[in-house]
Amino acid sequence: MSSHAARSSARFAKASERWTADDGAAIASELRLPAGSSILDVGGGTGVLAGHLAAASAYSVTVLDRDSLAVEKGSPRVGVTSVLGDAGAMPFVDATFDGVLFVDAFHHLGDQQAAIRETARVLRHGGVVLVAERDPGYLAAKLTFCYERMIGESVSAHAPQELAQMFRAVGIEGATRYSVGDSYRFRGVRT
Ligand SMILES: C[S@@+](CC[C@H](N)C(=O)[O-])C[C@H]1O[C@@H](n2cnc3c(N)ncnc32)[C@H](O)[C@@H]1O
Q: 8 alpha carbon to ligand 1 midpoint, in Å?
């Protein structure tokens, strides 16, 4: 692992510590899926949020992340399976999951179109996609994305309607709503 990748890994791991049991419960209620559903958390890092989600629900949660250090840290979490891999080439067979989650991860993906196609492939018909992002039209979000670019991270952020359109193109229809400040959620269903 390069020193830049190691720094990013450490920064992401630290940021993930902000997630609490309430955040896990909030994500579970937004997914609105039956008990026993299988959820994929793409770019789920060290699995802190996935762990809270698993604790707050009767879902089985899989984290997919390309960062081997994060996957190693996430592996012992109860109710969570951590898998090393890329969002653009997911190591799962078709129609594996009932829900796919991207939290603070979508704007970091190098090949977003590939990740969206892969999401449609691994999601069952009727399955739910939940994306939590920040709107780059807001100054605070813009400054964060500028900083992330300055430190060498890949950033491609989208306004809510633009993101919804990207998912619609692969048959995932949904709506966006603002949560807190410039943060928004896209919730879509695979038709
Ligand atoms: C800002 S962190 C968010 C982590 C977690 N979702 C959270 O909110 O705590 C972004 C994560 O996306 C992962 N990531 C970036 N590009 C990826 C890709 N192409 N495939 C899988 N994971 C990726 C990074 O390794 C990192 O763990």
A: 10
**Mean pLDDT (10-residue bins), the chain, 191 residues:** 86 94 98 97 98 97 97 90 98 98 98 98 98 98 97 96 98 96 97 94
pTM for the model? 0.97
Q: Give the span between the Cα atoms of 92 and 17, in whole angstroms.
A: 28
Q: Which domains does the chain have, with CATH numbers?
A: 3-125 (3.40.50.150)
CA–centroid distance, 107 to ligand 1, in Å, is 9
CA of 109 to the centre of ligand 1 (A): 8
Q: Would you say the CB of residue 109 lies under 6 angstroms from ligand 1?
A: yes
Residue 91: CB within 6 Å of ligand 1? no
The H helix count followed by the E strand count for the chain is 7, 7
